[in-house]
């Protein structure tokens, strides 16, 4: 397939420096009150300025991506509409690899992707999506890739690992990653707005509203995967053994910190947005809690023990948190070991340190939809509407 000429590789964009009032501060930040409608503070204008560097153009609707393991130049990105692209950052080459047949209802489509960490020895791609055919559901697919032509991976065969029904075209979940022990983690949302769907997040008999943990290196009778022996015991013989944590609504972007702890975001849209650190067996609270606040007092929530978010917020107007991961690059050393995340509607990017509230790195006129980890330890940030992928960098002084 020929290289697609509509893609453009760009050098650093110096036209949009960050205004000084949104500059980065990571020290000396005064604590903010834990008010019901708190928002991440705007940083002090005396600190280092941040700007966006334009890396790619022509990719609207990107929801996830990953560099090929072992490569600092090649990555795969996927659009919510189903198109999967191979990109070569150094040369600016781009190629459409595949188009998944997905539903366009609600917020359905492709939700997340993950490349096996042993690629190319194990050339498998895992995709979380909502198929176009049949009833509403979320499907976890495993694809074998051909790598016999250097620089031109191709999808070849597909196998369905999970197919989970959902009630409405919302809240499928948007997280898929491999953990440090080699297991696959998948984040599934509750599957709808209505109370019947939302109650599933607290039911251990359902995979909806859960974080799953699967061993995709082997199989068990009746399953195209195995259950890790140390998955949590949920004290219910009817509990699904795939469950690693429960109580989420529309979770996204799973990532691990330097201590191998899992982090994710949970999007609510109409109430509070959450950033979580998660351990096996945790209950993150939905639909009994939103953020740190009690949401329901019905019988099903009477005895719940939940782990509150590390941070939660509410903005005026529309909101949707977009997860990222931990920054370790030398490009912006003041950000090292900070968790980066964004808001799709506000256009804001924040950094969360271990001992402070988040600080604002920048607010631009865009819709950040994916923070893609780079091998150097920073991120490509996709603008869903314009189709541009940016890197954060220091503004010239």
Overview of this protein structure:
- This protein is an all-beta fold and 397 residues long.
- The chain has one domain: Neuraminidase.
- It is 1% helix and 38% strand.
- The chain is built from one helix and 27 strands.
- The strands form seven sheets. A five-stranded antiparallel beta sheet has the order 1-2-27-26-25, with no helix packed on it.
- The longest helix is centred in the middle third of the chain and has 4 residues, at 195-198.
- The chain is globular, with a radius of gyration of 20 Å.
- What's the tally of helices? 1
Q: Mean of the pLDDT scores? A: 87
Question: So what's the overall shape?
Answer: globular
Provide the CATH top-level class: Mainly Beta
Main β sheet profile:
5 strands, antiparallel
- How many whole angstroms does the radius of gyration measure? 20 Å
Q: Report how far apart the termini are.
A: 44 Å
Query: How many structural domains in the coordinates?
Result: 1
Unreliable sequence segments: 1-39, 41-47
Please write the string of helix (H) and strand (E) elements: EEEEEEEEEEEEHEEEEEEEEEEEEEEE
Tell me the strand percentage band: 35-45%
Total number of beta strands: 27
Name the helicity range. Answer: under 10%
CATH architecture: 6 Propeller
Strand order of the largest sheet: 1-2-27-26-25
């Amino acid at each position: 397939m020929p290289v697609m000429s509509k893609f453009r590789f760009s050098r650093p964009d110096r036209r949009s420096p960050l205004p000084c009032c949104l500059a980065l501060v990571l020290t000396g930040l005064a604590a903010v009150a834990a008010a019901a409608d708190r928002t991440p503070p705007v940083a002090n204008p005396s600190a280092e300025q941040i700007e966006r560097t334009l890396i790619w153009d022509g990719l609207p609707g990107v929801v996830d991506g990953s560099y090929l393991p072992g490569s600092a130049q090649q990555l795969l990105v996927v659009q919510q509409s189903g198109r999967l692209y191979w990109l070569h950052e150094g040369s600016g080459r781009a190629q459409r690899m595949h188009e998944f047949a997905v539903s366009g209802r609600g917020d359905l489509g492709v939700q997340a992707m993950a490349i096996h960490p042993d690629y190319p020895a194990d050339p498998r791609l895992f995709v979380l999506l909502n198929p176009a055919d049949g009833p509403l559901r979320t499907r976890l697919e495993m694809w074998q890739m051909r790598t016999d032509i250097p620089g031109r991976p191709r999808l070849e065969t597909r196998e369905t690992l999970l197919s989970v029904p959902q009630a409405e075209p919302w809240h499928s979940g948007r997280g898929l990653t491999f953990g440090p022990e080699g297991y696959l983690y998948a984040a599934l949302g509750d599957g709808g707005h209505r109370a019947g769907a939302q109650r599933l997040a607290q039911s251990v008999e359902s995979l909806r509203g859960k974080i799953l943990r699967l061993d995709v290196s082997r199989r068990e009778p009746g399953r195209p995967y195995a259950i890790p022996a140390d998955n949590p015991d949920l004290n219910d013989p009817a509990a699904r053994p795939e469950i690693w944590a429960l109580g989420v609504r529309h979770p996204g972007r799973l990532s691990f910190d330097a201590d191998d702890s899992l982090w994710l975001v949970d999007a609510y849209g109409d109430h509070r947005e959450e950033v979580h650190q998660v351990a096996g067996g945790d209950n993150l609270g939905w639909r009994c809690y939103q953020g740190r606040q009690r949401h329901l007092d019905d019988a099903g929530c009477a005895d719940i023990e939940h782990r509150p978010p590390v941070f939660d917020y509410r903005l005026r107007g529309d909101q949707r948190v977009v997860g990222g991961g931990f920054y370790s690059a030398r490009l912006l050393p003041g950000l090292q070991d900070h968790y980066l995340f964004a808001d799709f509607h506000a256009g804001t990017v924040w950094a969360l340190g271990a001992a402070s509230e988040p600080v604002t790195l920048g607010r631009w006129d865009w819709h950040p939809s994916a923070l893609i980890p780079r091998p150097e330890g920073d991120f490509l940030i996709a603008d869903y509407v314009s189709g541009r992928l940016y890197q954060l960098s220091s503004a010239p002084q």
